[in-house]
Amino acid sequence: MTVVGPFGLSVRDQALEADVQAGLAAVEEGLLEATKSEVPFITEAAQHLVRAGGKRFRPLLVMLAAQFGDPYAPGIVPSAVVVELTHLATLYHDDVMDDAEVRRGVASANQRWGNSVAVLTGDFLFARASYILADLGPEAVRIQAEAFERLVTGQILETAGPSEGRDPVDHYLDVLRGKTGSLVAVACRFGAMMSGADESAVNVLTQYGERLGVAFQLADDVLDIASDSHESGKTPGTDLREGIPTLPVLRLRERAARLGLAEDIALCELLDSDLTDDARHAEALTRLREHPALEQARRDTVCYAESARAALGPLPDGDAKASLVELCDLVVHRAG
To answer: pTM of the predicted model, to two decimals?
Structure first.
């Protein structure tokens, strides 16, 4: 049993391990090649997050999904590079929107070079992803375009907030399906599709990817509250400071409205205050870490991970399927 990929995924089959490791190594080379520019400064900025590392969660899913067809098909590695470049580009833009200072344990691009360079570098990565995508055929271009539209729509809906009368938790889960689930779904879809897997397997893996993507983001929500910067590679409570309501906060507000407990209402009032103040921010984090809303958010994460696991039912048993199942457990483990 060998550990590969993010979160310590264990692969028991030597052939599968070799395929996954070789695929991820090729993706790493592809990412460095795709982020080179004739302008050295652009190369430095574009490779900033590539070289900082990362879980490579989406490329791993491409490699595992490809096991349901021909894992050596020529489009698999380029499609994984496309998905990861798209993800990296969104991180540059997210950090500008969040005014983040740290990403993957290093200074964020906006902190190092300013917002303009960070936004334009994200655009550069989108352009390079599109260039690679063009060689994968019009169907791949259409799939990526649809996913990117869903991703952006999810981000806009998060910014706009729920419409009047809409349940905030339901709205937020819709946001995550677009903002995170769509691209994870594409990772699984590309891996299966590029490998020539049959249509039913492509559909199953796409559904699995979207559900796993939501679980992954919910685990991130929990980590943003519960972890320190060493564990997460990001500044804890970034969304909290920016007033972005992630699931633990939404569960808190739901509980406060339902039960009317003084301590819940007081914590909501603290969250509504100016959390750019370091002392208030630290107090809010401490109190949320001790609140039942955080445990509820963990249970929600488990629910989505179990839903992803259930989606895999129709696939034939084997080491690739077992690895996809294990990823559900590991995503939950991240949330404690």
So the answer is: 0.91
